[in-house]
Amino acid sequence: MSTATSESTITNHAVVSQEQWVSERRKLLAREKELTRLRDQVARERRALPWVRIDKTYSFEGPEGARTLADLFEGRRQLMVQHFMLGPGWEEGCPSCSFMADHTDGMNVHLAHRDVTFVAISRAPLTEIERFRRRMGWKFRWVSSFGGDFNFDFHVSFAPQEAKGQVYYNYGMQPFECDELPGISVFYKDDAGEVFHAYSTYRRGVEAMMGTYNLLDLTPKGRDEHDGAMAWVRHHDRYEPAPAATAAPAAGSSCHT
After folding, report:
1. What residues make up the domain containing 32?
2. Which of 130, 164, 167 has its CA nearest to residue 146?
3. Between the CA of residue 21 and those of 14, 16, 17, 27, 28, what are the distances in Å?
4. Which of 170, 150, 187, 169 is nearest to 52 (CA)?
5. Looking at the predicted structure, is the pLDDT value of residue 164 above 80?
6. Using an 8 Å Cβ cutoff, are 152 and 158 in contact?
7. Buried-exposed string 65-97: b where 16+ CB fall within 10 A, e elsewhere
8. Domain shared by 107 and 195, yes or no
9. End position of a domain, from candidates 48, 63, 91
10. Can you give the pTM of this predicted structure?
């Protein structure tokens, strides 16, 4: 959809009576309820997926030192991992992954109260992760899988020899795009301390972390992404100042030119 078409739709948008608006809104509400019920059904099916036992020992480097995957749970039963695109030697993390991460700190306390520990994992060395984290001002836990197989085993990092053709990503073969790609994975730890892989999502599935999109989808202009999905997204310290709101004149005031 072109910008011109979008602007034309906004400029020439239908304006109706309150009664007709309510009638149309009720029709949309019925569709929204269908979507809510479908989302609930899919969530039940997601929880019913079988698990895979993690038999491999993965090691990560965090600010407190070396940690295993089981250690990352921090005493909780559920672990949610953001596969954050920050490869060794990168100057900064992926803007889209950073957009995801911008939503995390506010959610973390609530996740913890539902038995979920959140952690970001990147292949960059810890010193590079910490440098970028300080720049962004984030507080969530973020560890390095540098030198290990974790990112490769979960199909979000790709060896140089794979870069020549297709890679296995999002449960199928895909043309190579980048040696790092985004994802979210969920793990469960039982009373015996065994860890299981419960779920992973990629591509648009990672929008689960992008609360900004949920709000934009409620607005007349929507996501307004005419230059391509997420082409507008910047690191939060790279945006130009947002346009200032134009205040309406106070009652009884007049404007003079």
Report:
1. 19-48
2. 130
3. 10, 6, 6, 10, 11
4. 187
5. no
6. yes
7. eebebeebbeebebbbbbbbbbbeeeeebbbeb
8. yes
9. 48
10. 0.88
